[in-house]
Amino acid sequence: MSDVLIKNTRVLEDGRLVPAEILIEDGKIKGISKEFRISAYDEIINAGNMVTIPAGIDGHVHFRDPGLTYKEDWYSGSCSAAAGGITAVLEHPNTIPPVADKNGFSLKLKHAKKKSVIDFGINGGVTNNVDQLKELWRLGVSVFGEIFMAESTGGLNISKETLGSALSAIGQLDALACIHAEDEAIRLENEELLKNDSGIDIHSRVRPNECEEVAVRDCLKINKEASSPARLHFCHTSTPEAVKLIGNAQKEFSALGNAGKISCEVAPHHLFLSTKDYNKLGTLGKMNPPLRSSEDAAYMMQALNSGLINAVASDHAPHMHYEKDVPMRSAPSGVPGVETLMPLMLAAVRKNLISLERVIQVTSRNPAYIFGLDRLGKGSMAEGCDADLLLFDPKSVVPIKSKNLHTQCDWTPYEGMDGIFPGMTLSRGNTIWDGHQIIAKKGCGQFMPGAGMKTDEDGRIILEFDDDEDDE
Ligand code: DOR
Ligand code: ZN
Ligand code: ZN
Predict the structure, then answer these.
(1) For a FRET experiment, which of 51, 189, 329, 468 has its CA 20 to 30 Å from that of 134?
(2) Which residue has the CA at smallest separation from atom 7 of ligand 1?
């Protein structure tokens, strides 16, 4: 592959933006310098003074493929990611079929390989399939989960007993368990108690803060008591109560010498939206866990800044507008978000809600570390790492508009809000988004195998199924 030189850009150095050039060789960062005195390149990119940061890694997307491709598929979902400055995703298992066994995994891998324009990992599902987890791990799933502790899209929620045995099995594999923490009993009780209540914020009251808090506490306890506790990552935390519990558990574990074994993420909708938006959004503001008060949202931003929350992930969960156009109780839960994650965060930097340095940590470095993608060269602009880059003009604040987005989902909960979109996205040194259009070839994204994937003596991947099998 060729050498690329990015000229006339700026990078963050010791908290300041400084002029720089970036040299890329064979898709990897070769060096960053004020000026390179080399004359032969295959390609020069003039960045026009845009800032270059590591592209985002979105550890939480639902691309609906296979099974519900009218909502999204690997091509539309990955194009949406690329246009939003995301070059790697972990895709969650609640597709049809779910990634609950070898068949589900191989089918998803095949669809993703054919269509994705960005690099991708595939998560292993946890249902009543504890006996399948080892095989999924050997096949190359990135992590396990999201593991649903309460009902959500796909109906994959499991009992506490199953959670206990799953966490033991995952711990034995030294894999990561990603948890959707909501308490099913509290949800069911509130559904019954509030069945005649038709308030606009009913969904948030059926799944109140306590619903998340109790689930996080239970999960931490169940894991502690498991025969071999797993490393835990809490998905889309939305409440101060949950974040504080996780923070305390992190301290407890680090005192035991197991630092970094518990982590958590927040979704943009729990930072930038609140229950106040129900009036405007109606069912478009319905997701699990639900919208919280504006005070809670402000707390989540503060906790992201302080380090209590480790990552931002979109929980991109597309449902079509007509599917949402029903009464609140019957509307599906979920909002699209992969294309607006980085633009919202970069606009938040401009508003002094967070520093650019922290945005880089929580959107690339930390997700790479938490999900084990750093071992594949992801999440950093250091020499030798994949040249996955996002170039942007910090002054280019524009209103987010659904019609400009690349997802198949025909609406966004952030309509009209400020975003700073990438002027260019590079994946392994190749421009995949030039600020106007996707210029990546369908299928150019690479599979990022999990750490448990079986390899032969030379380190080559062994795929234990027929990669060309037809199935559609
Ligand atoms: O709102 C949500 N939507 N929460 C989930 O846990 C799943 C997701 C989906 O897949 O639609
Ligand atoms: Zn979830
Ligand atoms: Zn999710």
Answers:
(1) 468
(2) 153
Q: Which residues pair with 180 in a beta bridge?
A: 148
> What's the 33 CA to ligand 3 centre distance in angstroms?
39
- With H, G, I as helix, E, B as strand and everything else as coil, classify residue 87: strand
333 Cα–ligand 1 center, Å? 6
Token readout for 394 is: 């910090």
Contact 409, 282 (CB under 8 A): no
Q: Give me the tens of pLDDT residue by residue for the chain, a chain 472 residues long.
A: 579 999 999 999 999 999 999 999 999 999 999 999 877 788 999 999 999 999 999 999 999 999 999 999 999 999 999 999 999 999 999 999 999 999 999 999 999 999 999 999 999 999 999 999 999 999 999 999 999 999 999 999 999 999 999 999 999 999 999 999 999 999 999 999 999 999 999 999 999 999 999 999 999 999 999 999 999 999 999 999 999 999 999 887 776 655 458 999 999 999 999 999 999 999 999 999 999 999 999 999 999 999 999 999 999 999 999 999 999 999 999 999 999 999 999 999 999 999 999 999 999 999 999 999 999 999 999 999 999 999 999 999 999 999 999 999 999 999 999 999 999 999 999 999 999 999 999 999 999 999 998 777 776 666 655 555 444 4
Q: How far is the CA of 408 from the centre of ligand 1 (A)?
A: 16
**Cα-flanking dihedrals φ and ψ of residue 445, to 5°?**
-70, 145
Any idea which ligand is nearest the CA of 180?
Answer: 2
CA distance 95 to 125: 10
Catalytic amino acids? Answer: 315
User: Would strands 28-33 and 16-25 be described as parallel, antiparallel, or unpaired?
Assistant: antiparallel
Residues with Cβ within 6 A of ligand 1?
62, 94, 152-153, 180, 287-288, 317, 333-334
Residue 291 and residue 277 in contact, taking contact as beta carbons nearer than 8 Å: yes
Ligand 1 atom index nearest CA of 287: 1
Residue linked to tokens 């269509």: 115
Of ligand 1's atoms, which has the minimum distance to the CA of residue 332?
11
From CA 446, how far away is CA 241, in angstroms rounded?
A: 38
Q: Secondary structure of the chain: what % helix, strand, coil (to 5)? A: 35, 20, 45
β-bridge pairing 144-148 and 176-180: parallel
Cα(304) to ligand 2 centroid in Å equals 19
Identify which of 184, 212, 315 to mutate to test ligand 1's pocket (most ligand atoms within 8 A of the CB): 315
